[in-house]
User: What shape does this take?
Amino acid sequence: MKWPLLILWGSLAGGSGGAATFHCDPVKGGPDGDGSAERPWGRIEEVVAAGRIRFYDAEGRCANPSAPCGPGDTLLLRSGWHGVIHIRRGYNERPITIAAEPGHTPQVGWVEIDEGANWVVRGLAISPSLAPQPLERPPPYLVMLGEHGGEQSHDLVIEDCFVYTALDSSKWGAAEWLHAANGIWLGRRGRGHAARNNYVLNTRFGIALCAPGCVAEGNVVANFSADGIRITRDEQAARFNVVKNVFVSARDGDPNHDDGIQAFLFNVGRGTLRKAVVEGNIILERETDGLPLPNSLQGIGFFDGPLVEFVVRDNVVGVTAYHGITLGDARDCLIEGNTCYGANPTAGRPWIMVGRKRRDPVGNTVRNNWAPAFHLKDDAQVKAENNRKATHAIFAQRLEALADRINKLYGAVHPVARRPRLEPRRKRGG
Assistant: This one.
């Protein structure tokens, strides 16, 4: 059936500075609708494929100028299956928002925006397991933003979404964990992409920051088998995230050395990274007792520098690996206000370390931290002040205080996953 041109809607959403709202309903909508609340369009996948959104290239040329939806507009999705969202190119002067309509629970299989600027995807459930029929081509990550095109991409945002391989992993063995989908990829092109307040569940890798200036804040990465968050470019930030519950180890055939948050230069492995901020994150190897397929998790493992002017502040790390917080080949970095403690007091004693891998660290400041041990002697110029030995009581106190802070910022229960960021204290292990 042919889609109408909808000249009236096009004028409402055009370049006059106004903003329009369109509605997509996979049950009651269709191509004969006009996108209004009373006559909605159908699935968002169909809306994109039919060219109902104006798509601009990086030079401002529009491929389909008669399309009704454009920069500054909002597409509200109603409950039901919407297919997949794949936008190949779209550079917007003002954000286009694709969001759940209040009170609705839209579902998509994955989200890809290859290149573009000013897109916001909000409030969706994202998982191939939701599809009525198996999907043909899952991408490497369930959300991929800014992976193709030139360097003009910027401000591609995924927020308030529930991203997962499958809801129930209780019966997974090592093979299922090793082949789970990956979560969110803020791609290599452009800068300033953001993952905010998403719940990433049952994945291999959680969130990868791959372009300069990317931000991961307020997310939960729960149940993963590789790394929780990866920092790989200059001026990236990971703050107020909860990373918890790692599965499978080398004993199970997994060669990855798992980290709650890891840093390295993308596509190189080692090289200079500058001005990353890692602040207010909670990293728990195992939040509850009795989970299967245990593995030792490194907390904040930044081994491959040089690392220049990093800030690692106010994180709480509960792991059994020795590396609670480690910065290798660090220069002029700040490690401040962090707390590390053994998730199992009879196992590892996670330290805070400023270490040498290929060159001497120099000029770093390490102050006001709690940990079982500190290894700072490789930096002959280190400024070490008021670093104290952690106890279980201090760890529990600092964990509760940071959890309260995160809950006040982002809510104790995720709005789409309907899951708490942390289990009630009485249920936690360690």
